[in-house]
Amino acid sequence: MQGEHLQIDVRREQDRIVLRLHGELDLASAPLLQGAIESAEAEDATLMVLDLDDLEFIDSTGLRIILAAHEHSQESGQMLALTRGSQQVQRLMSITRAGEHLRIIQSPDEQLV
Q1: Does an H or E element contain 35, and which?
Q2: Which residues are 22's β-sheet partners?
Q3: Secondary structure of the chain: what % helix, strand, coil (to 5)?
Q4: Mutual orientation of helices 60-76 and 30-42 as an angle, nearest 10°?
Q5: CA 68 to centroid of chain Cα atoms
Q6: What is the pTM (predicted TM-score) of this model?
Q7: Which of 9, 12, 37, 92 could lock 20 by a disulfide, CB 3.0 to 4.6 Å apart?
Q8: Domains, the chain, ordered by start
């Protein structure tokens, strides 16, 4: 999936679906991520991973989409995890304290118990 500033590669594995984000996640590209998340939620994977390692920028709109996905995953029983991402992504997670509520993993292939 590709928008003007954001590209999302989807990879399916046995127990997980990985959404790898490249580029910028902002007001303009947020609907693309929202659609990808909704498609991933429809899968029967027990874990959805948002791989943010190649994400160069995220704004509050993008963060809102991720937090909504986290909330929905808790309601539906599907786990959501995300990688740390770039310095800018980490800074936003730290400033907003969103990272305290999300499951952060080192690698999209990390095994979770």
Answers
A1: helix 30-42
A2: 7, 54
A3: 40, 35, 30
A4: 10
A5: 11
A6: 0.92
A7: 9
A8: 6-105 (3.30.750.24)
